[in-house]
Amino acid sequence: METIHAGLIGFGNIGSGTVKLLRENGGLIEKRLGARIVIKKIADLDLKTPRPVAVDRKMLTRDAKAIFNDPEISIVIELVGGYEPAKSFILEAIRQGKHVVTANKALLATYGDEIFKAAEERGVNIGFEASVGGTIPVIKTLRESLAANRVRSIFSILNGTTNYILTKMSDEGKNYKTVLREAQSLGFAEADPTFDVEGIDTAHKLGIVLSLSYGKRVNLADIYREGITGVSQQDIEFAKELGYKIKLLAIAIQRGDAIEARIHPTMIPFDHLLASVNSNYNALHIRGDASGPVFLYGQGSGMMPTASAVVADLIDIARDIQKGVSRRVPSRSLSEGGIEEIDLMPMDEIVTNYYFRFSALDRPGVLSKISGILGKHNISIASVIQKGRAPDKAGSVPVVMTTHESREKDMRAALKEIDRLAVLKGKTVRIRIEDDRLK
Hints:
- By secondary structure, this protein is of the alpha/beta class.
- It contains 14 helices and 19 strands.
């Protein structure tokens, strides 16, 4: 039976899971592939820390060059993460004519143009299924299964940490800081959670998804991004009263020749499929012009779920090696020469519905002042909630409004004027609403 050798750079959590999966399901993989996939060498700076899986110490090295210079190794698995030295490792593997498997979403979202072009010129494959959605087959679905479709829209939950936090806040009534500490203690959130809670991790994933869906280059700076740190328990309770859950959504919508791309906390109806995606799970609701709606759901992180995606890429590349072919499917659906810059809609031109929460002094005429300014800026009120609640320390009570579809630019101009009113305390809270019943 043919043996296909791979080299692993990065023997951390996912690297250990990859070795474990190849070992435990090796017999099944051999039957399906008709060949063995063997990790021949493992490179990592830390060779002393015990791993969940034991390996022969002869396989271990601190020098990644031992992998690049081994003629038997045909696939390099990069799992060190970050920009450098990961980028140099991948480019060196490509230069040596070796195929690459990586889970490095930040690197591909930022330097994908350079890496994918180098792979095409050298004629090698890059597998990156694990970079978006963990175990969910997002890349294969967009690149192959929906290849005949124009992708009309994608509504997705792409970060397990933020979804876990919002789920706990919603289901258990805990505040943001309490749930964040809990997520950190369970390993769902990093000691510095900025990349997750500010939507940066989600932006990296959405950048890759946009590139695959529309065959375009994406400038991450052009994707509107807003995190969950401003979501309060009070807003979650009002959302429930209105029939909504709050999720951090990554949204892409085709608008003629332009694409609407944004990441922000969003209110969605209880009966929306994404509203039932809880804890650290990820999901994507994709609509193609021919396929209609496609829903993908699964664990977006974790040792074994992510290792599953890594090994799936290994198997795909091994099949190509067996047939003596390469790049049967282009990395980003199109040849790199066909990739163009994406035209993202300015956020000011986005049209959607809004939730506003004002902290208003309990005086006559407050509602008329607010509604008058909203009307002046072409914003129509859909509903109002004003209950007899005890004033807070500043003497204000919450007033909640939802709007009919309005333009982002108009919303911002209206709130700028409203927030200057003497009868309001603090800045207005606003959360966007995605509800087809309001369209």
